[in-house]
Specification:
Rossmann fold; 9 helices; globular; 7-stranded parallel β-sheet; binds NADP nicotinamide-adenine-dinucleotide phosphate
Length: 247
């Protein structure tokens, strides 16, 4: 059976972990599992089916040198990479007037500069294999905006346009190849990221969700499994929403 190598960033917890487990269960994927440290990936490793082929890639995305090391490693050792799921992300909720520059830099570094660097690596690696899929995690708030999340939402909106432009760029440079760039915009999914929001904010979101409940990480993982598959070969450049109707 054909085996596809996929890098998942931020695979230790939440949505990234669910994607890793779903692709492991699928059986067609070899996994490059990234998180900020090896220790944060331990629990996930214990949950993988024994036959899963994987490598762990602990790199702190807040550290530019570590990001460069990861990019070098991908280009040297993983020339056969099929896909990148750029999922690692952070929030630093605060009114912009009171947000320290250090936090603004951190949000831009982890949520935007790293995805751009990963997409750049994809643009080098994928054409040599005649195929590849890059998926960037955006967010529903990229479209709606969100009070006290202005920098976060700006980074997430930038991921949407990054994928649109690179889908076009790949179309110009590599017409005969199947290289796709897609952004995925989850609504409110229950993870560490959303569990730390106040009860009041959680209830406010809940009232706006037509499906009447928060999303599960597995629901995002199933959609990403589909987007990576050849059945999704005509989905390119688009923003894929998984939000229970939350607008
Ligand atoms: N949850 C939602 O409702 C929701 C909605 C819309 C969009 N999203 C987006 O979906 C993605 C995943 O969200 P989530 O809710 O699953 O988040 P999460 O539970 O907080 O997990 C974040 C992941 O990112 C990794 N990460 C964070 N900072 C890092 C750093 N400096 N270096 C390396 N890795 C780092 C974490 O690794 P460690 O364990 O090593 O810290 C962890 O694996 C994010 O991009 C988020 O913006 C989430």
């Amino acid at each position: 059976m054909m085996s596809y190598k996929v890098l998942i960033t931020g695979a230790s917890r939440g949505i990234g972990r669910a994607i890793a487990l779903q692709l492991a269960k699928n059986g067609q994927y070899r996994l490059l599992l990234h998180a900020s440290s090896a220790s944060s990936l331990k629990e996930l490793i214990g949950l993988l089916p024994v036959e899963t082929e994987y490598e762990i890639l602990p790199f702190n995305f807040a550290n530019e040198e570590e990001v460069s090391q990861l990019i070098r490693h991908l280009k040297q050792t993983h020339k056969d990479l099929y896909a990148i799921v750029s999922n690692a992300g952070i929030t630093r909720d605060k009114g912009l007037a009171f947000q320290p520059l250090k936090e603004i830099d951190e949000l831009i570094q982890v949520n935007l500069k790293v995805p751009i660097q990963l997409a750049k690596a994809a643009m080098k690696i994928f054409p040599k294999n005649d195929r590849g899929v890059f998926i960037a995690l955006s967010s529903c708030v990229a479209e709606t905006g969100s009070a006290f999340q202005s920098v976060y939402t700006a980074t997430k909106a930038a991921n949407v346009s990054l994928c649109k432009s690179l889908a076009r760029e790949a179309g110009v440079l590599h017409t005969d190849k199947l290289i796709r760039f897609i952004s995925v915009a989850p609504g409110f999914i229950q993870t560490d990221m959303t569990n730390k929001l106040s009860e009041e904010i959680q209830q406010k979101y809940l009232r706006q969700i037509p499906s009447g409940r928060f999303g599960k990480t597995e629901e995002v993982a199933h959609a990403i499994e589909f987007l990576l598959s050849e059945n999704a070969s005509y989905i390119n450049g688009s923003e894929f929403k998984i939000n229970g109707g939350l607008l």
